[in-house]
Amino acid sequence: xxxxxxRLAAEGRARIEWAEGQMPVLRSIRARLADERPLAGLxxxxxxxxxxxxxxxxxxxxxxxxxLALCSANPLTTQDEVVAALVADGVAAHGRRGExxxxxxxxxxxxxxxxxxxxxxxxxxxxxxxxxARPDGLERLIGGTEETTTGLVRLRxLAAEGRxxxxxxxxxxxxxxxxxxxHYGTGQSALDGILRATNxxxxxxxxxxxxxxxxxxxxxxxxxxxxxxxIVCEVDAMRALEARMEGFEVMPAVQAAARGDVxxxxxxxxxxxxxxxxxxxxxxxxxxxxxxxxxEIDLPGLLASAVAEPRDVLPLVTQYDLGDRxxxxxxxxxxxxxxxxxxxxxxxxxxxxxxxxxxxxxxVRNGAALGAGVHPVPTDVDQEVARLKLAAFGVRIDALSVAxxxxxxxxxxxx
Amino acid sequence: xxxxxxRLAAEGRARIEWAEGQMPVLRSIRARLADERPLAGLxxxxxxxxxxxxxxxxxxxxxxxxxLALCSANPLTTQDEVVAALVADGVAAHGRRGExxxxxxxxxxxxxxxxxxxxxxxxxxxxxxxxxARPDGLERLIGGTEETTTGLVRLRxLAAEGRxxxxxxxxxxxxxxxxxxxHYGTGQSALDGILRATNxxxxxxxxxxxxxxxxxxxxxxxxxxxxxxxIVCEVDAMRALEARMEGFEVMPAVQAAARGDVxxxxxxxxxxxxxxxxxxxxxxxxxxxxxxxxxEIDLPGLLASAVAEPRDVLPLVTQYDLGDRxxxxxxxxxxxxxxxxxxxxxxxxxxxxxxxxxxxxxxVRNGAALGAGVHPVPTDVDQEVARLKLAAFGVRIDALSVAxxxxxxxxxxxx
Amino acid sequence: xxxxxxRLAAEGRARIEWAEGQMPVLRSIRARLADERPLAGLxxxxxxxxxxxxxxxxxxxxxxxxxLALCSANPLTTQDEVVAALVADGVAAHGRRGExxxxxxxxxxxxxxxxxxxxxxxxxxxxxxxxxARPDGLERLIGGTEETTTGLVRLRxLAAEGRxxxxxxxxxxxxxxxxxxxHYGTGQSALDGILRATNxxxxxxxxxxxxxxxxxxxxxxxxxxxxxxxIVCEVDAMRALEARMEGFEVMPAVQAAARGDVxxxxxxxxxxxxxxxxxxxxxxxxxxxxxxxxxEIDLPGLLASAVAEPRDVLPLVTQYDLGDRxxxxxxxxxxxxxxxxxxxxxxxxxxxxxxxxxxxxxxVRNGAALGAGVHPVPTDVDQEVARLKLAAFGVRIDALSVAxxxxxxxxxxxx
Amino acid sequence: xxxxxxRLAAEGRARIEWAEGQMPVLRSIRARLADERPLAGLxxxxxxxxxxxxxxxxxxxxxxxxxLALCSANPLTTQDEVVAALVADGVAAHGRRGExxxxxxxxxxxxxxxxxxxxxxxxxxxxxxxxxARPDGLERLIGGTEETTTGLVRLRxLAAEGRxxxxxxxxxxxxxxxxxxxHYGTGQSALDGILRATNxxxxxxxxxxxxxxxxxxxxxxxxxxxxxxxIVCEVDAMRALEARMEGFEVMPAVQAAARGDVxxxxxxxxxxxxxxxxxxxxxxxxxxxxxxxxxEIDLPGLLASAVAEPRDVLPLVTQYDLGDRxxxxxxxxxxxxxxxxxxxxxxxxxxxxxxxxxxxxxxVRNGAALGAGVHPVPTDVDQEVARLKLAAFGVRIDALSVAxxxxxxxxxxxx
Lengths: 415, 415, 415, 415
What we know:
4 copies of one chain form a homotetramer. By secondary structure, the first copy, chain A, is of the alpha/beta class. Chain A has 2 domains: 5-177 and 344-393, Adenosylhomocysteinase-like (Rossmann fold, 3-Layer(aba) Sandwich), CATH 3.40.50.1480; 185-339, NAD(P)-binding Rossmann-like Domain (Rossmann fold), CATH 3.40.50. The first copy, chain A, has 17 helices and 15 strands. The first copy, chain A, has an 8-stranded mixed β-sheet with strand order 9-8-7-10-11-14-13-12, with helices on both faces. In chain A, helix 1 (5-21) crosses helix 4, helix 2 runs parallel beside helix 15 and helix 8 (175-198) crosses helix 9 (214-225).
């Protein structure tokens, strides 16, 4: 059922307003940018998920003086009402949920045609097209930011070939990002997705977490906090030792397979759970993936292990009958916190987009000095985001006294 | 859109099958009852929520030899497809989702007219009608079970007046019930309901739990496990001390009100959060109730504190604008784990209905000896349910050796 | 080296003063008793451990108006300097560290000869002698208190034979006692004793806790808090289930024996760890007992399992060489929190002796109404101790409003 | 009382044997070194704490073929019986507990005179003297290791001036070191030291941890695990945010001062607690320092705040009377885990000395390639220590399959 434009825009504004309420860090940055106007006269092009949170980021950059052009980084995540609201407010926003590849590409080109001084990417599409097809657009470009690991791989590839023509800030490698996005964000939302899909009682269960990186640590922590026994599987000795020192059991996956009630893969690798594991899992075991791609659970192997067609027993649960036992796969092995939950809490996006906004400001203020290449988020930006988040929590902290600062320097120097 | 009977029944059977998969304790009881047939020749009448889990209970009792008559304890929770499946399988099952009061009463009477030897109640409707309107039905009655606190209050009222004519087993006061239903079940599902309604990131937040009974303890434990700081408010000194000894902060509600991001009431009392608390809560605070009735948050007081009409900002979130701050009420103050989540995990219902089944068996085997009155679940039944749950987890435990049993007795007697 | 009397008394006074600093609950009771003088004109006889904490209890009772006579409940725990301080202050205190049985008995008789109106026992010696040898002393006796399980067994034996002639308050069964003494007190101090004896790093270790009663729960909680994986062994299904629901692994002892690094018995039973367990324990395993008697680890069985004489490798660690592996027994299998640690923290004694003081007051105010028999600590006393402990923590809590109290009553009555 | 040489050596051997039992990682390295003999023909000089654990390290290096010369890094920690055992076994070991500065210097020179190919330092004394006074000794030197931060500051100072003549491995900056030494080691032992000094019950208390680096995190974790509420104070926004996200309260020190029962400083800075904090601390507050130097608590300021001479109320507790309140300082403000506890558990030393042994082997195998300068512990060494520690725990882990290794490389390269 179609919604008329004005009504759609009104819906979008309500949604944006709610998102703003959840993004205090970005709000405080917007307030400062509105005062200082460091982006006055500049054009910012962004290819991001077209959501209410992105609208809040756009609003902060506009408050700083930028003229904006936006397009969608993924047609599946576009919120049409948000686009409508942006357009109604005069922002050059492109995208429609479910648009086809041509429409998508047109959106990217429209942003590039707006001749941005700074770009924001979520997958390196703007910078990719600029380098591949519109090199003249690179001349005025101060630099860009990138939000994803995949995008960084592309851009670092360019840099390795000596072809990257501008500074790029690796926003998703900021420490606050890791903490909020991977550790606490996905830690919570992966468990949340599993509960929404299955309504399992976690207390008393055994959860096997395969992979103990930032995200795996977060999931293991939250699973324990929900009352589960947690077993960790790792191929890296140092990470395995850390898991053991945190009080988790650590063992090979095939041994854990026989013990677990719930399995979560989060390794970044493929076939972490395969036929040899399926063969020993207990009846009713639940399999979920929290890694980026749906290759961590060997889906063809699972299908081959089954004696009958898989069937959907709950909206997000597919049951595989192995003859003597049944296994339950969540969300077809796709990333469970997005597929079965609501994805990242707004507090996570608040931190990401606060870092984005400050990274843009950093490029504008210091871009010339940075040089072409992929750069980490400056420590100052990380500290500032942390400081603003503490302020949003209402938390104050001490500062070093003059004597303490001297002592600290002195100790480092004089000893 | 109407579904044809056979198809509805098929849907119901699928749902029942899934539920059975989640109820290993009840399954093992059913297997034993099928062997021993202790209910052969008896009629069992049940007025329960007509859900897939209840169908599993019915199946266990039928396996034990009982002839069943079922009616709904609440028209809002009836799963029509489950009723259809039961009817298709020849069970006398009554109820339709959203049926009116007359239809509801007719269901109760139909069960009573089936002349049950044992009743199962969820709110004392069967026993209530039997005592009030069909006293002749009491003569053949061996006894009944009751699942709710409210029902027990009614039945104990009858008993206090000397009018209760049969033994009643207080199923919901079993220790396994408390553990699973209140502590772990609601502990998890209340938090789950809050997350589904709001998608908040719990890490770093301050949650205020008002009431530190079985359920409050469960919620506090799970909130901490999700990374929140937890503040407990209590009026009972012993409970308050226990909370403090568990490492929670304890303080008066009005003081906690100024600190909390999320508030959960679970006291069993009224107006636990009122205007004096709303007046000091921070902007964006979330208010939820996990107590049985929607009186714990003073809703008229909240409305009176607002300067504008409340508005729904998310499906389960109503925002109250207090002028300088906005407060977010979840699920209109109704019990959040049911209203915003999926209610109790099947593992919880497994324990409840296992206790129900064993309580029915106990009545049949020992009813004559019990005498009229409300009786606790026998320790044997509690132990048996615990034993079966451990078995379902695949957990074995030791038994006392002969020498140890003697030592234990000896110590108790001889010292 | 002998210390002169006045100097010894001064030492004792310093020690008592320090203890008072740690006993805020008892201090506040003393202040009230000094105001109200409910014990004026009464004689109180106490057979307790003659320690600084006991001196504080005596001081509170004296402040309430009582005349005191004290003797030691155990020659091994007597602090001579405390006795000296009491005597110097005019209190009739008897006992000397290491005194022989005759001297000990003389102390008990001296207290009885003081014709107490109320007795305090730690092992039922005063009440035992009164009933067995000085029945005339029972006539004036209002009642007594008892601090130990062993003493209660004796007194309940008397009661079962119809021979108990006065009311006795079972102080150690108060809920605050259980919480502080067993759960938090021994929970912490047992772990503390193990660390002092061995200096083990707990993180990464597997601790097996045998017995999951109040104390076992406390030890398991603290071991997990120190970073250990915890396995629980239990013979009771309900307790085993609770352990599992708390996220602990539960298994038979012989299976746990092969996994554990540290073993703690706390069952109240004998031979919980025996040759079949020793046979599979890993090299270097540490064995400790936190139960009352040194029978929980089968010491003869351990000796028989060894291929050589045991030898003391650290002050509190005896190593048994089993040929292929070595096992380390702590404190000769005696209760590890006392034998290897400092026993109960003063905060625990504060709660115990606060309960003692209020129990004495309760006997004096209501003794006639109580009747002969062993009585639980009144709920009022438990609540008052909890209330005072909260006050000592500086914690305030809410009270029910009039409307809430009415609602609570109304709900219980009217529904 | 003097012990005769042979008897002293026997005592030392027993102590070394016990230590070996606690050092499985070092034992397994010794076994491999004995097989491979990579140090054959080399001389190793070590200036370390002369303890049983050091003797185990010496034994591992000797097994690898090295000829050893040892001297003490600190006369206060020398275990004379260990030196006696080493000497009796033909090792050139120098040092005596409490020896004067001349004797100490003679020990260092004796080791240097042994013309070591590799040095091990705990404070840079060997390398310091070699560079300052015996530069000819540097010619044959392959390199050295350093165990302390202080030593590294000295050596990096040398390097900054271009004067460091050999490669130095910064052993204490290895990840396993941080994890075991700072996080888990000091985390446990600092709390342990506080409990030994005071016998406080931690449950229900509020502990304030000032500083949230590796060690502060460990202490906060363990204090929470012991049942305390934990408040964290930090001057660094990122660390403060991490503490908050872990569920700790974060606030300025002066605000925390009014709330805490126990205070632990671990900042590496001075005057973290001073008169403005003492002025608001509650009566009976306990002050401890877990930082390296005794400057973190402002001791002159504490003395100046007192109205009377401080007095020792327990062996490690000095009480300061502030008039209206008394504060209790532990161990004179010196590092509490060493001063009031037993310092690092053997498991910590096992990891440190395993890293030392592998670092020595690394220098021998790759020293020429390293170049002069302070080098981090190679990742390989860290991984190997982690691997061996897991093996000592009996933990096995998976390895990447060929396909997975290819996927991992492929993803990094191709994307």
